[in-house]
UniProtKB/TrEMBL annotation:
Residues 199-212 have a biased composition (Basic and acidic residues). This is TraB family protein. It comes from Bathycoccus prasinos. Residues 182-212, 241-281 are annotated as: Disordered. It comes from the Eukaryota. Residues 248-261 have a biased composition (Acidic residues).
Amino acid sequence: MTSASANSPPEITFETTHGGLPILKLDFDARTPAEIDLERCVLRLSSSNGKEVILVGTAHVSKDSAETTERIIREERPEIIFIELDKNRLEKLLLNRSLGEREVLKKTIEKIRDIPSALKFVMSNLKDVPGFVYQLGGLIVGSPAGNEFTKAIEVAGDIGALVVLGDRSAEVTASRVMQRVRYGSKEKRREERRRRENTKKEKTLRNPEERVREVAEKYGCEDPAKVLKCLKRILSAGMNVALPPGEANDEEEEVEEEEMDLNDRNGGETSSSSSSRTTKISAKDLEVVRQCARKIIESTRKEGFKGEGAFSSSVFLDASNSETEKDVRRTILDERDVILAHSLHRAAKQAGPGVHKIVGVVGSGHVPGIKRIFTRLNDTSKQSESDVLISMLAKEEERHAHDEYLNAFPQDVDAPDPARDMAQFAILFGGFAYLNYKKPAVARRVSAMFFGAISVVAVGAANVLVKVGQLAEKLDDASHELRMHEKIPSLLGDEANSRVLRTARIRNGVRKYGDTAREDEF
């Protein structure tokens, strides 16, 4: 009976009455398939050539997302798996997994141990900072960033599916964001200044603690006050910042009382170790924050899947909905919706007769946009000749937009004028040279103030990075302690991840419509 129970489906369980009589219990899910898909953030679409497309909406630092992705792929057994990555990000992700996330994290922390090394890191490895932030988030929730993608590739190797990369280069996305923020259009800049002037007096920033408590309450964390207190203790311990009196944990307060008694017996001499600062992050505090963080992530994943977009709401940020914020959201979200949808459409259209199913693994916030665009691209309803012509023109316009979104410099911003920039530089340099000639003492003071301000900003940013590195190191230790206590195997670098590099078939699916070059597998 025990062996049968071990191999039985999850809907079938074996129980025993008080008299020892075995009972077969059937527990079938009463929900409809659509309700189950909605709960798992799964969307089913059809391409114009009859291919079934199954989109899995994920959160990139979510253990549940990784498990759902693996389960869906094994259930559906698709011939193609489409993922929201580009080649460079994929290679970096798999390299981190093969080396081990803890080892990669330690190497990064070593590069930001002190202010000089942190300055060097920012100057030479600026593009790695977002990945480091994702690693930090993964430590808090207990799941490596992008684990759903590595799981998808691992299962692809098991079932012999082809992996198609459907996202544009992260470098292109970063470049377009920077260009829009830096240049923009003159009209947008004027509107931005006008809006800031009108709302400057009205805007009041909420207390960060109030926002944390509000988010914890909104997403059903058991004790928001306790979550906030644990989070403050984690930040205090991680960044070596003293907590206000009365906010240290109970164990720390007991240690401080013992040290005070010892000091009194020693004639009032203070111990060098006595402090309200905590040198270690408590695994209990991390567990409380982790449980709340997972609830928030899973709730917002479902909201994003439904198109509610919680991450961009004022619950998480005092968003002024400025032109700059609109540009950033458009570049990071809307443009990539177009690219992902067109890449998915192309993968389905070019799939041979042996392909019946495609599973797409994308961030849940992209699912509504992909659904809208993919459905329009695969519309096969009967239309009049005029409607067909309009549809063709609209699709052609979309293709042009898709191709433009793959360029590093956005078409809708004011292009930099080298001649104007050189003229401005010449005026500044000439003015300073004239000042230095006429009044060298004033020129020296001006230059000292200028370079001093730059140094203060640079050193301040480097100091913050050093503190974040200390926080990451202590979070890693607390997370490891929590795993050992719960006897959970590490997800940050196992043998299966090294197997990914040897077995997966991967192809880049992003290209401009005019590009007919064949993309080989790698």
